[in-house]
Amino acid sequence: MPDEHRRLRLSLGAYVLGEMSAAEAVALERHLARCVDCSVEADGLIEALFALTLLPEQEGRRPADE
Ligand SMILES: [Zn+2]
Questions:
Q1: Which pTM was predicted?
Q2: Distance 4 CA to ligand 1 centre (A)
Q3: Where do the structural domains in the chain lie, given as residue ranges?
Q4: Which residues does the UniProt record annotate as the domain Putative zinc-finger (predicted)?
């Protein structure tokens, strides 16, 4: 279990970016359901990724000096 935790935690980035095989993603999701640490970390990564992908679009649509 600790080994699985460490291995899956390191692969959270690939999971969030969608660069993971379906089988790996299933194993990771199963772990996330049981592991608060990893699920909090995954949420944080998803939020960060979401912010990164949204920011340029928002800046383009809404100038900051309005
Ligand atoms: Zn974990």
A1: 0.70
A2: 7
A3: 2-61
A4: 9-38
